[in-house]
Amino acid sequence: MQLLGNELSTQFRRLRTWAMLAALALIPILIGIAIRLVGGSGPGGGPAFLDQITNNGLFVGLAAMTVAIPLFLPLTVSVVAGDAIAGEASHGTLRYLLIAPAGRVRLLVVKYLAAAAFCVAGTLTVVLVGTLVGLVLFPIGPVTLLSGAQVSVGEGLLRLLAIAAYVAVSLLGLTAIGLFFSTLTTVPIGAMAATAILAVTAQIIGSIPQLDALHPWLFTDRWLDFADLLRAPIVWDSFAGNAVLQGAYIAAFGAAAIIRFVTKDVLS
């Protein structure tokens, strides 16, 4: 626990971490200000939920999340996960970490958990800042769900948090991939770029109908399937299916990272 605490402390003391969280926070801020100044879009115009913001500010967080999921969140997660091991190697601190009795597998687990914590921080930043922007700039009221039912503001906020949790889980597979790439090199930018490119490639493949046989196997396939959390009653099938899919990627790439790291000659 001390090793994890130290890693989390290091992670969230870095200027880079706070710069990335600030960049994520800008998404709902820009959306809210733009709609406040220019007005809302028509039904179906722009990202999902964008046309609902002028009626209810709670939709700022939802709209911002749909904007952040395809590129901005994966990019920031790629930076954190890709730097996990390669960053230590590039700074010459990896061998000193391995001198401690923690062991290589434990170090990998700690690095993964720290990167997963950033996934949670990133999604919460988008939702919480979006909610604050909505409260300041737009009226707030009961939330009309996709099923047509209305829920209170309090329940709407809880559903927003559930969606943040869904998206955080969605990014855990990508985090494992980034950690694996990070064990392959001592150049962090290489691992970061490979992880980000793979995330974009998977989404491109997922948008091609001719490759629909591959879609269920892509770690990005369920990233936007949180609609079940906006129904009454909530249907948890998508959440469970997404968790199983990400768990498979965590197991596969986590095992690959362990095999690579425990057999790696660490010279820096």
What does this structure look like?
- The structure is a single chain.
- This protein is mostly helical.
- Helices cover 66% and strands 1% of the residues.
- A two-stranded antiparallel sheet has the order 1-2.
- Strand 1 and strand 2 (150-151) form a beta hairpin.
- Helix 4 (72-83) packs parallel to helix 9, helix 7 packs antiparallel against helix 8 and helix 7 crosses helix 9 (172-183).
Shape: globular
Please indicate the percent range of residues in DSSP E strands (runs of 2 or more): under 5%
C-alpha termini separation: 25 Å
Largest sheet report = 2 strands, antiparallel
Structural class: mainly alpha
Order of helices and strands: HHHHHHHEEHHHH
Runs in which pLDDT lies below 50 for 5 or more consecutive residues are none
Radius of gyration (Å): 20 Å
| Mean of pLDDT | 92
- Give, in spatial order, the strands making up the sheet with the most strands: 1-2
Number of helices, counting only DSSP H or I runs of 4 residues or more: 11
